[in-house]
Amino acid sequence: MVNIFFTADYHFAHANILKFTQRPFANITEMNEKLIANTNEIVKQGDHLYILGDFAWKEHKHFIHALNGKKYLIKGSHDSMNGDALRLFSEVHEGMLVRTFDKQPFVLTHCAMLVWERSHYGAINLHGHSHGRIREMDDRRRMDVGMDVNDYRPVSLEFIRHIMDKRTYGGKASGDELQANVDLLRERNCKLAEEFNARTSP
Residue 144 half-sphere exposure, CB side, CA atoms within 13 Å? Predict the structure, then answer.
């Protein structure tokens, strides 16, 4: 059986990440070794591992080879690597991948999204990038799968489904609710436009 896992923000060989995110490692070598060990403890060679950006600062090929599983990359802010390294991934996607797992649609991105394709119909947005600095809401089917908020290890498809089953997401908003929001935004933007035009007109 093939197991599916998701993660983001390894930041292998990126020394500044220790200070930026206050990771509990003595140095970058210890961090690299621990993230590899944590991953390989649960991801086996036949499994699929989706990496949602910010994989490594340098030595890309070394870290790709070090991890178990068939690896898929959704490129993030720090994924500048040459073609030889990129070819070691099973797939590489520029910023977004829309895919269905076990009949459940997912939108995989490096950065969190406010709305996404089929979000009003139950699609789940998985992301990284924010290192836990974006509040997750019970009425939003969005999850940070990054290392910093998941005990420095990937998370399984089954665990994500378990979390989403506990969310209070109510489905598609009514037409009246949507129109009320449109009216509110139109009124606000018209008012701001009037203020701006009054300030800038001769």
Answer: 19
